[in-house]
Design a protein that fits this description.
Oligomer: single chain
Strand content: 35-45%
Shape: globular
Strand order of the largest sheet: 1-2-3-4-5-6-7-8-9-10-11-12
Distance between the termini: 29 Å
Number of helices: 1
Low-confidence stretches: 5-36
CATH architecture: Beta Barrel
């Protein structure tokens, strides 16, 4: 059954960074067919997966996610966090992008969830560029794990599409918007449907990111059960490091402040024919699982 699910995901995708700061003399930036989208773009999502510029061979990195409290404890200061490491193994422009990602949910035995130091899972994520600004993807979170707590034993599948639009042809403020729409089961279900014994039903998620600075996005998203809003930014011109700060679980009684950071590395050099490779970034770490209701 698992093989059939993977065949379905891959079939849909097939059918349908040395990183640099933005340089107006770069010939890639002058490609009119790209309509201005060939530059560094910080995260366009946090708690929902998006396929945007993901899965390039040799793009590797890692990140850290911190939250000031969890849904479970309810105390204002009860910090928890997790880390992630990812490696790109494909090419979304020519065939299919592939990103293998390890999430480490247990960073400390006494802080956050007790006694879970080293707890982790592995996920696999696909992406495909259909047109210059339209991407599709799919994948699975928590495919298998080690020392997993009950919420992280629950495998979650998803399918997703992302479209970028130019709002302005000149200037840098509010120039672009990135819209994401997807569906998934497991972690993406409504609170009313969530349990740790079953993956279904599937549910809709989505988000929007507006470029409010040359390398800064304002992000709003619905992950299927609650909302996140925040700001993602590339603070250093020549360092592929991005940060996200915001508020998660906005409509839950236990709102939480989050801070996430990730660093990308290029382990491979590709030809100039690859439009987005040197502008791609690893995904930020996903939020810590804390949905036992």
């Amino acid at each position: 059954m698992l093989t059939n699910r993977w065949s379905f995901l891959v079939g849909i995708l097939l059918s349908f960074t040395t990183l640099f700061s933005q340089n107006p003399t770069d010939p890639l930036l002058l490609d009119s067919a790209l309509n201005g989208f060939n530059y560094r773009v910080p995260a366009i999502s946090l708690s929902v997966p998006d396929p945007f510029r993901k899965g390039y061979l040799g793009v590797a990195g890692g990140g850290l996610f911190l939250q000031q409290r969890t849904r479970i404890t309810g105390r204002f200061y009860s910090p928890d966090g997790n880390a992630s490491f990812s490696l790109g193994l494909g090419n979304p422009e020519k065939l299919i992008g592939l990103e293998v990602r390890i999430n480490i949910y247990g960073l400390h035995d006494s802080k956050g969830a007790p006694g879970n130091l080293g707890e982790g899972t592995l996920g696999i994520h696909f992406s495909r560029l259909l047109k210059n600004d339209f991407w599709i993807g799919g994948g699975v979170f928590d495919l298998f794990g080690w020392k997993p707590e009950p919420p992280n034993k629950l495998t979650s599948y998803y399918l997703v599409a992302m479209k970028a639009f130019n709002l302005r042809n000149e200037g840098t403020f509010c120039k672009s918007i990135y819209l994401t729409l997807g569906a998934g089961n497991g972690k993406f279900r409504r609170d009313a449907d969530y349990n740790i014994k079953s993956q279904n039903p599937w549910n809709i998620y989505g988000g929007a990111a507006v470029q409010v600075l040359p390398e800064g996005n304002f992000v709003v998203e619905w992950n299927g059960f609650n909302a996140f809003t925040g700001f993602s930014v590339l603070p250093f011109k020549k360092l592929p490091f991005q940060m996200i700060i915001g508020v998660d679980d906005i409509f839950h009684k236990n709102k939480k402040i989050i801070l996430s950071g990730s660093l990308s590395l290029s382990l491979n050099k590709m030809s100039n024919k690859s439009r987005f490779f040197k502008y791609s970034l690893v995904s930020p770490p996903p939020p810590q699982t804390s949905r036992i209701l």
